Amino acid sequence: MAMAMAMAVPITLLFAIVLAGGVVSSAEFSYIEYNTTQRIVPGKINVHLVPHSHDDVGWLKTVDQYYFGGNNSIRGACVQNVLDSVISALLEDKNRKFIYVEMAFFQRWWRQQSNAKKIKVKELVNSGQLEFINGGMCMHDEATPHYIDMIDQTTLGHKYIKDEFDQIPRVGWQIDPFGHSAVQAYLLGAELGFDSLFFARIDYQDRAKRLEEKTLEVVWQGSKSLGSSSQIFTGIFPRHYDPPDGFTFEINDVSPPIQDDVLLFDYNVQERVNDFVAAALAQTNVTRTNHIMWAMGTDFRYQYANSWFRQMDKFIHYVNQDGRVNALYSTPSIYTDAKYAANEQWPLKTDDFFPYADKPNAYWTGYFTSRPAFKGYVRVLSAYYLAARQLEFFKGKSTSGPNTDALADALAIAQHHDAVSGTQRQHVAADYALRLSIGYKEAEKVVASSLAFLAESRSSTGEGNSVTSFQQCPLLNISFCPPSEAALSNGKNLVVIIYNSLGWKREETIRIPVSTERVIVKDSEGKEIESQLLPISSSTARIGRHYVKAYLGRNPSETAKYSVAFSVSVPPLGFSTYVVATTKEKEGPGSTISTVHTYEASENNTIEVGQGSLKLLYSADEGKLTRYVNTKKSVTAFAEQSYGYYSGNDGTDKDPQASGAYVFRPNGTFCIKSENQTRLTVVRGPLLDEVHQQLNSWISQVTRVYKEKEHAEVEFSIGPIPVIDGIGKEIITQITTTMKTNKTFYTDSNGRDFIKRIRDFRKDWELQVNQPIAGNYYPINLGIYLQDNSTELSVLVDRSVGGSSLADGQIELMLHRRLIHDDIRGVGEVLNETVCVPEGCDGLTIIGKFYLRIDRIGEGAKWRRTVGQEIYSPLLLAFSEQDGNDWMSSHISTFSGIDPSYSLPNNVAIITLQEMENGKVLLRLAHLYETGEDKDYSMMANVELKKLFPNKKIKEVTEMSLSANQGRDEMEKRRLAWKVKGSSAGEESKVVRGGPLDPSKLLVELAPMEIRTFLIVVDHIQMLGG
Ligand SMILES: [Zn+2]
Fold first, then answer.
1. Which of 968, 971, 953, 951 is CA-nearest to residue 1015?
2. What kind and span of H or E run contains 456?
3. Among 28, 459, 464, 965, which is most buried by a count of CB atoms within 10 Å?
4. How far apart are CA 18 and CA 273, in angstroms?
5. Neighbour-count burial of 147, counting CB atoms closer than 10 A to its CB (0-12 exposed, 13-18 middle, 19+ buried)
C-alpha cells in the first residue's frame, strides 16, 4: 500500500518534502524493517520501555462497564479493546512486550477466547512477551484495606495465574494508590517473593528531595520486626506512571509521532530522536545506574495498541541507530534484574509513604474516611468470609451448591484503589455493594448449611440433607433481626448458635433484639444464665425503620422494644448454643430489666457507670465524660470525649483546592455542643451499663461498659449531616486526656505493624507544614495509641478511618464526611452520599463503633492486639426456632473444629483456613505482636498442627509463599540479596523467624509479626463421629 502510493506521488511534491524535512537526501522510499531486537547494552544508558495500561477495576464506571466498553459517554474506556489489540500487536513482533496487572479484567477476557487464541496467548506468556505483574485481582488500595483482605485478593489472582499459566509474578506494581504502606512493602511484596515494587505517588516534598539526591530507588524495610529478611527493592517514578512528555501515543494523543516516510511531509526522525535522548538524559540525572524505566502507558491505554507499538518500534530503531542511548522493549522484571546486576548500594527506606500530598494544600487524607458505610461493609464481610471458609471446610467443600467464591471475588474487587478507598462514583459504589451482597447471600447459605451439618452430626451420619434451618441477621447493627423476634412472638424458643472464628476461647456479652420482656436465657446444659433487657432507644428504632425500608423496600412489621444481653462462652474455632425463651410462670424471674435514669443538666453531681473494674465518670452538669478509672489495674485518668466538624474548603480562595473524596482540606473547626437540656440517659443492669447521649439532631452515641471488660465501647450514629447551609462537613470525635505525649502517636499499617508518627514531622525530609490538620492525618485500620511515661491511651476502630493526634494527649478520628465540591482529582462527582426511600432522599447516616482503653505504660499492646483481633472477627450469630425443649438432646450444642484440649496462644490468629478445590487445605497463621511490643507475647509462638486437625491424618505439609503460589524454599532460594547503603550486618538487631517445620512433630514456630502459609494434605476421615 505504501509503495503504490509512493509511485503516485507527483514530482513537485517530493521537493516540498525535501524542504520540509530538511534532512532527506533521496526521494526513494523503500520498506523499512524496524529493528526492535535490542537488548541491554552494558556501558550505555539503557532506556527500558515498559508498555502498560492502567486499568482501574471500577472508578468512573463499573468494572464490567470498563471491561466491555459500556457507559462510554462517561469515559471511552474498554479493556476488551486493550487486550484484543495488545495480543495482536505482540503476535506481530516477538520483540514487543507488555505487562498485565489486573486479573479481574484478564479473567473476563480470557474466558471469552477460543482455544486457538488461548494457545497463542500462552506462548506469549511463556516467551516473556506478555508478563503478569502484581497479579492480584485488582491493584488494591494501601491505606484503607485490612491486610487479610490484601492477602486474600492477591492469593486469588496469583492462584489464577498459576493454574492457567503456571507463572509466578515477580514484581509489585502499585503505580496509582495514593500513598504506600509498610505492609505493602514487606508483606504484599517481599513475603510474596517479589523482587521489586514500583509506584508513582509520593509526597511532592519527598519527591523533590529524592530527585535531587537520586534516592527515588531504595531498599525498603517495612517491618521493624522482620527487618532485612523482608525487604524489597522499590522504585518510585520520577513524575507519574505515564511516559515523559511527548511520548504518549493513544489515537487522540498530541505527541508527535515519528514521521519517517520521505515521500510525506513533516519528516521528523532526527528531531524526535533528539527529544528521546534529551528525555532519557534528564531521567538519568535523577537515577542511579545507567538503567532508566519509562512506563509507556497510562489509564486505559492501548485500546488500539498498534498506535503505541508502531511508535516504540520506530523509536527503538532510530534511537539505537543514533547510538547515544540504548532503547529497548522491557518489563519491570528485566529492569529489576539490570538494577540488581549493577551491584549498587541502595539507600534504606523504613516506615511508609503516608500521608500523600501532590500540592501544598492537597493532602489525600480525606479518603481514609470517605464512604464510611461502605468501608464498614467491606470489613464486616471480610471477617464473615474468613469464618465462612472455616465452616465450609468443617463440613467439606461441596462441588455443587452454594460456596464462598462469589464473596471472595466481590471482596477482592472491593479492595481496588477506587473501591474501599471511597473515591469512585456513586453508581460504582452501588455496584461494589451489590456484588458484595450477592456474595454474602451465597456465603450465608454455606454458613447455615455447615452449622446445620455440624449441629446435627450426632443424629446423622453426615449423609443426606440437614433439616435444621438457620437464619442470620446482617442488619443486627440497626437492631433488625426478624428470626429473633418472630420465634418468641410465636411462642417458640429461639436457638442461638454463636460461632467463634478465632483460635482461642472467647467470653463476650452479645445482644439480640426480642419482642417481649418476659425472657429467659439458657445455656447448652439447659441452665438459666443471667441476662439483661435493654430498651432500644427511640433514635435507634427510627434509624432501624428507615434503613430497613431503604435496604429491603418494606416496613418492618414491628420493631423490637428490647435487646436481651447475655454472656456467652465460645470454644476456639467452634460454637456454643443458647436458648432464649419466653418465661413461664413457674420458672424463675428471667431476664433483668435495666434501670433507666435520665440526668438533667441541673443535677450537679458525678455519675459513675460500670459494674466491673472499669468505671467511667460523667459530669451530669456538663453532660460529658470526665474520668476513666480501672480499679483492677489502678488506672485513673482524666478523659473527655467530644464531637466536632471541619467545614470542607470550597476551593474559592486563592487556591482552588476543595475538600473532596480524596483530599481533606479543612476550612475552620467547629465544636458540636449538646443542644439538649436533657443530656445523659444511663441504663444499668447486671451485665453492662450504657450511657446514651443525643448530641444534636444528627449525632448520638451509646457508650457501653461491660462488667467483664476493661474497655469502653462507643457506638455512634452520625447523619444525615446537614449541608443546607452550603457547607460540606467532616465529622470528628476527639478523646482528650492530660497525657504528655510530646507530639508522638502510633497508627497501624493495614491493621498490622504500628508506626510511630510525630506531629508536623517526617523522617525522610524537612517538612514544610502547609496543612497542619490534614497533613497530620494517617490511615487507621486497627487502632491508634498514645504513650507518656506512665500511661497508654488506645483507641481501636471497626473499619478504616482517618485519624491523628493534633494536640498532646489527644486522639482524633474522622468518622463521616459529606461534601458538596469535587476536589478535582478525576472522580468528577461530589462525595454526597444519600439514602432514598419512596418519600425522598436524605444524607446517609452511619452507625459504627470504636473502643477505648487506658493502661499503665507497657500494658496496652495485649489489649490492642488480642481484642483488636476479636473486633476484626466478631462472633457470628445464627438463629433457629424450636418447638419443644428437645434441641439440646437432638443436636450437638457445642463444637470445636480443633482438638478440644487445645487452644491457640493469644498471640496467634488463624487468618486463613480454607479447603481448595483440589482437596488441599490452605492454612495461614499470623503472629499478632511485633518485636518488643509486649513482655509476654512478643515471643516465639508455637502451633501444633496435629491439634488443629483432630480426627484427620496430616499426610503432607508444604510451606508456601504468602500467596501460596510457590514453595517457600524455592522462593527464598530465588530471593535477590540487595545491598543497603551504610548498613552493616551487625547494625540490625537480629531478625528472628520461626524454624523449618519438622515433618514428624508438625510444630509451627511463629516469630513476632511472622505470617506462615501452608498447603496441607489431609486424608478424608469423617470429621465427626468418624
Ligand atoms: Zn487507578
1. 968
2. helix 426-456
3. 965
4. 19
5. buried
Tell me the C-alpha distance between 543 and 550, whole Å. 10
How far is the C-alpha of 189 from the C-alpha of 518, rounded, in Å?
56
Distance 1002 CA to ligand 1 centre (A): 43
Phi then psi for residue 965, to 5 deg, are -100, 0
706 CA distance to ligand 1 middle (Å):
44
737 φψ region: left (φ > 0), alpha (ψ -120 to 50), beta (else): beta
Centre of ligand 1 to C-alpha 827, Å, is: 11
The number of C-alpha atoms within 13 Å of 1024 and in the hemisphere containing its C-beta is 24
Q: Which residue has the cell 454458613?
A: 447
How many other β-carbons are positioned within 10 Å of the β-carbon of residue 270? 13
| C-alpha 478 to ligand 1 mean position (Å) | 34
Ligand 1 centroid vs 704 CA: distance in angstroms? 41
- Judge if pTM exceeds 0.90: yes
Distance between CA atoms of 158 and 169, rounded to whole angstroms? 7
Q: What is the pLDDT of residue 560?
A: 84
Place of cell 494536640: 807
Ligand 1 centroid distance, CA of 819 (Å): 22
Out of 20-29, 62-71, 531-540, 908-917, least confident range? 20-29
- Give me ligand 1 centre to Cα 196, in Å: 20
The 10s digit of each residue's pLDDT in 592-607 is 999 999 987 766 689 9
Give mean pLDDT, residues 212-237. Answer: 97
Task: Determine the distance separating the centroid of ligand 1 and the alpha carbon of 84, expressed in angstroms.
Answer: 21
Compute the distance from residue 140 Cα to the ligand 1 centre, in Å. Answer: 9
Question: Look-up: residue for cell 527487618?
Answer: 227
Distance in Å, CA 824 to ligand 1 centroid: 15
Report the alpha-carbon distance of residue 483 to residue 512 in Å, rounded: 10
Buried b (16+ CB within 10 A) or exposed e, 744-782: ebbbbbbbbbbbebebeebebeebeeebebbbbbbbbbb
Distance 178 CA to ligand 1 centre (A): 9
Distance CA 789, CA 163 (A): 54
| Per-residue pLDDT reduced to its tens digit, 579-593 | 999 887 666 678 999
Could you tell me which of 897, 801, 816 has the C-alpha nearest to residue 851? Answer: 801
Helices (H), 466-525: 482-489
Separation of alpha carbons 153 and 149, rounded Å: 6
